[in-house]
Design a protein that fits this description.
Layout (H helix, E strand, L loop, with lengths): L2 H18 L13 E6 L7 H15 L3 E6 L4 H13 L4 E5 L4 H10 L4 E5 L9 E4 L4 H14 L4 E6 L4 H17 L4 E6 L6 H13 L4 E4 L4 H8 L2 E6 L10 E7 L2 H13 L18 E3 L11 H15 L18
């Protein structure tokens, strides 16, 4: 082989490798878009998944990635869909593995040259599976402080999906915040055992309101509807729905997935993606979470409560106050 032909062959081989871009340790060719796939067990509009979808759509709009996604994937079908995306050349796969941990981790092992960023209660799995979670207990605590100052009956209702750590820690933080501003408050807690069943959540909320709750913690869709119909107040979770419930939703603890998504995309493009825990990037200091503006309730929340909340927020951001991560199942305290 001539020196010129050998140089051409080597150059072609290097270009082919760089175009793949999914080999750990190798960067994408300059200007190439990362191929990203989302695998979600619930609809795009469900609170938690909507934050993933929003962040990845934003990266797509910036021209950084090619993005495909599947919603409403059943647990039984999750592994198949993951494999199809991996086989199809997607370099980063994002989704939630909470109910399909074993299957998802098996796929990651079978595709070591593909990067995985999955919502999980477990640990990262070398070399290519990173985990994340909505560690938004800090703004949840702040919304609890507001709820404690807004209830007149001293009874707060809380409706969650499943009593898993990802839900429990937010509810416990909310309850601790409410107790800080109102030691007399009592809680009614229930779980609907579904991630997306607004009618069931609504019925659970109605039952609590009938027993005196005048502020509802809306961990699931459907709770704010019940509060609106009964003329009660609600506290939002993960997303801000005050625009849809201007006279009902007082405040919300927002989750921003952008810090996690942007980090994963950057590292994947640079060939530096490794197995790590992205949990910290959901915290307030990384802008991964925040307290939503009070908006329509800006003049309705007592001034002394607003002052306390702002002071606590400053202490959290300044490292002077740490919201406890309590993953235990919250219990009702209402008599």
């Amino acid at each position: 082989m001539t020196a010129r032909r050998e140089l051409i062959v080597r150059s072609a081989a290097i270009a082919a490798v760089l175009s793949v871009g999914s080999l750990p340790g190798l960067a994408l060719a300059q200007g190439a878009k990362l191929k990203v796939a989302g695998v979600y067990t619930v609809p795009f509009e469900q609170q938690w998944v909507s934050r993933l979808h929003k962040a990845l759509k934003a990266a797509e709009a910036r021209g950084e990635i090619e993005y495909k996604a599947s919603e409403n994937v059943t647990n039984a079908d999750y592994e198949r869909v993951m494999r199809e995306y991996a086989t199809g050349g997607n370099q980063l796969i994002v989704g939630e593995a909470f109910a399909v941990e074993a299957a998802a981790r098996k796929v990651a092992k079978d595709f070591p040259k593909t990067y995985f960023l999955l919502g999980s209660s477990g640990k990262p799995q070398a070399p290519n599976l990173s985990v994340f979670d909505n560690f938004i207990q800090e703004p949840a605590y702040l919304t609890g402080m507001i709820a404690g100052g807004m209830t007149k009956s001293n009874k707060i209702g809380m409706v969650g999906g499943f009593p898993i750590p990802e839900v429990n820690r937010l509810m416990n933080a909310f309850m601790a915040g409410a107790k800080e501003t109102n030691p007399k408050v009592e809680f009614s807690v229930s779980f609907i055992n579904s991630w997306f069943d607004p009618p069931k959540a609504k019925e659970a909320a109605f039952a609590m309101i009938d027993k005196g709750a005048d502020v509802m913690y809306a961990e699931r869709f459907g709770v704010s509807d019940a509060a609106k119909e009964k003329g009660k107040l609600a506290i939002g979770n993960v997303i801000d729905t005050q625009a849809q419930y201007p006279d009902t939703v007082v405040a919300s603890a927002l989750w921003n997935f952008e810090p996690s998504a942007d980090r994963a995309i950057k590292l994947a493009k640079e060939g530096k993606f490794v197995a790590e825990d992205y949990g910290p990037y959901s915290m307030m200091k990384h802008k991964g979470s925040e307290l939503a503006p009070l908006g329509t309730f800006a003049s309705k929340v007592p001034a002394d409560i607003v002052t306390k909340v702002k002071a606590k927020e400053a202490d959290i951001l300044g490292g002077k106050f740490t919201v406890k991560v309590d993953d235990s199942q919250p219990k009702s305290t209402a008599k």
